[in-house]
Design goal:
Elements (H helix, E strand, L loop, with lengths): L19 E3 L6 E4 L2 E4 L19 E3 L5 E3 L8 E5 L5 H8 L2 H11 L3 E6 L11 H10 L6 E4 L4 H5 L4 E2 L1 E5 L5 E5 L18 H11 L13 E2 L6
Parallel strand pairs: 6-7, 7-8
Antiparallel strand pairs: 1-2, 2-3, 4-5, 6-10, 9-12, 10-11
Length: about 230
């Protein structure tokens, strides 16, 4: 199985001995070191759908401030799932790509919320102080970093990997969900070659136009939700 753009076998893609998640429905498959396997149990949440109201949530950010999605009605909202140790996340931050998209969003008045759903003991889990340090050292500019160790926000959006991107319009409707771009690799030089799905979604949403490729394949390191 290959991608037309990268011509790489999925099982040969470099990753941190975790998994590469692909797909956009309940029938998504998981590529693991041993091959293709179906996803096991999923949380009892209705899967989010483009064109439908985005799942509401309440979450506390790294500075102790509470955010409620419904209170942001009237504004475009971007959601970015992250894990700073994930090589796919590092690809976009080390190259400055994620920061550039965040700036594009901020300049357009979009509220960008970065979400960390890694529980204690799992890769990507950080203290609020560490989250703020990462924002500063990477020169990132989200409106807030939401700390979601119980996975409540992540499960509501069925966020599967890092990065996993979502865009919500001013009416509270989900208009994009999926990958940041079209090439599932950890190589920074692939960024310019890829179709910039999330950038394109932002551009269309700001203009009030329908988002092309509104549902795409997310790729990255699997979000490891708490089982407690």
């Amino acid at each position: 199985m290959t991608f037309d753009r990268s011509k790489e076998k999925l099982v040969d893609l470099p990753f941190d001995r975790r998994t590469l998640m692909l797909g956009t429905s309940a029938g998504l498959t998981m590529v693991a070191a041993g091959g293709l396997t179906m996803l096991s149990s999923r949380p009892a949440h209705a899967a989010p759908q483009v064109g439908k109201p985005a799942p509401d949530f309440t979450a506390v950010d790294s500075n102790g401030k509470t955010h409620k999605l419904s209170e942001l009605r009237g504004k475009l909202v971007a959601l970015e799932w992250t894990n700073h140790d994930c090589p796919y996340v590092r690809k976009h931050y080390n190259a400055g790509n994620m920061q550039a998209i965040q700036k594009q969003a901020a300049d357009a008045g979009i509220v960008w919320l970065t979400v960390i759903s890694s529980p204690p003991g799992e890769q990507g889990n950080v203290t609020p102080e560490k989250a703020n340090e990462l924002t500063q050292t990477r020169k990132a500019s989200p409106a807030a970093v939401l700390i979601d160790p119980k996975g409540e926000v992540g499960r509501a959006y069925d966020a599967r990997v890092t990065p996993h991107m979502f865009l919500i319009n001013a009416e509270g409707t989900l208009v994009y969900m999926g990958g940041i771009d079209s090439i599932p690799s950890t190589r920074a030089d692939d960024i310019e070659k890829a179709t910039p799905y999330f950038r394109d979604a932002i551009t269309a949403a700001v203009k009030g136009e329908p988002v092309k490729n509104a549902v795409t394949r997310p790729y990255g390191c699997t979000v490891k939700y708490t089982t407690s």
